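Agmatine deiminase family protein
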Amino acid sequence: MRRRLPAEWEEQEAVLLAWPHVNSDWCEDLALVEPVFVAIAKAVARFQRVLIVAPETTAIAEQLHRAGIDLERVSLYALPTNDTWARDFGPITIFEEDEPVLCDFGFNGWGLKFAAHFDNRITAELARLGGFGQRRVSVPGLILEGGSIESDGAGTLLTTAQCLLEANRNPHLTRVELEEKLRELFGVDHVLWLEHGYLAGDDTDSHIDTLARLAPDNTILYVRCADEQDEHYGALAAMEAELRALRPRAGGRFRLLPLPWPKACFDDEGGRLPATYANFLVINGAVLVPTYDDPADAEACAVIGRAFPGREIVPIDCRALIRQHGSLHCVTMQLPKGVPA
């Protein structure tokens, strides 16, 4: 059967969000983080639909209405959730013979680090409630998070060995066996592995969407650290060398666009937080870019704009999001064109 994993920059129907609530890790920071979710929802709703899950939705609808968001462009589903990282428990959509199929991969809290019993059920529950219309849901039987893979929609998959080969995800599979599964499930024939890459405060074991992102025309945007005194310097320099050695499936070289390095951000206990400009979200007609009230914000927006010409660049202040060790892309999952929302 002919399968294809679309690129994020292809046409979309909606973006999925899981709203923060008092019974999640956001409890103490709810007043800080909810405005970020409102800003994301407002930006997305200008271009496409927004699909929101949360244990209670009435107050969310009121917030969105006060923010001037057209609720006709929002679908709200009351479902229990553990947390807000929709990128990793939301459906990964593929196309089988040009028809969308939603893949419900297992989510185990990034290798059994955190509770995920509610989040692991979100895709199945949304399907049961009609959130995806009549589109088929497939259960591949693998642990896989959306933030751990990047696709160009034309047969190339970019990922990191540190995440996909972590012992608590799919320990029954060797690297060769796992790659073969990915090739079969996604219809890819060019799998690129990064062995290096590190982001302090990241709980995901180096998700690719915090480090390097595929873009149109054989382009890769990636984080670069030029400060030799920074703890990230060695790992990111090694990753940059790896990226320079990668080749597109049709030959030639990738166009590499380095993203600037924001100043270090810390939590209240002094722990480093994972501020990264690679965690942007591409939607219809725009790219939402995480910003951190940093002098490098403008440069990051400019670099991402070069990779996605013709799209509006929309900065979203994500200083509150990184307090729980993720950023903008991590809290969103796009639903491609053809998936009713």
